[in-house]
Amino acid sequence: MLPIAPSTSYDHLAKRADPARLSDRARRDAALRPEIRRVFEENWRVYGIRKVWRQLAREGFDVARCTVARLMKDMGIQGIIRGKPHRTTIPDKKAPCPLDKVNRAFRVPAPNMLWLSDFTDVATWKGFVYVAFVIDAYARKIVGWRASTSAQTGFVLDALEQAVHDRRPTKAMGLVHHSDRGSQYLSIRYTERLSEAGIEPSVGSVGDSYDNALAETINGLFKAEVIHRRGPWRSFEAVEYATLEWVDWFNNRRLLEPIGNIPPAEAEANFHAALETEDIAA
To answer: Model-level pTM?
Structure first.
């Protein structure tokens, strides 16, 4: 009934009964498929070809990127594609505004030199939830975050407090805090807290997402990898718990290409280890 030779059919049946008769490539593919599936599942089902390939390499698998691409296509799995984030910034034209001390230069040579802050909104069945992040620019590590049902100053201030408690900045560090011109970040309470912590404020221009592009990128990843993929969201509590899980995974296990395809926490640990080695050598 099928347009194939009987010998081909018998050969196929024999190989299915005895995997040892498969070609080297077929056996290799059979061994790689569950590993690819495992990496994909363990990382929130958001990794694409490149991230899966990088993670397999970190685990000691000698596999070509094109092989991972072919097998992921055969398995019908693909990573999350980030969409355009919603704009939540409401500028306060009457509030005094600090200068832009960053000028889109988001690369810094060490942790605790530049923090970036922004927040985004999440629609739930009970109303909007707002999620704020504070990111250390060196390794893109999230050092503070907070979820709230209100977009008032208090919730972004709570995210800042978490970052300050975790990092203990001092004025001698020369730490700069950069944000957009949202009224929450220009409020008296927020700017006073920055001053008390010895942090220098910096603010981007109006209506220009590039002036806070790194924070916008983290927001975009959060929306693509959590919010859009796992919704619809029932409540504030569901969003808050999912954010807690994602931040832990992002900081400690997610591979980031701009920092060498390692997690943010590992990049910071490598930095401090290098400093200790230099101190011992000196």
So the answer is: 0.79
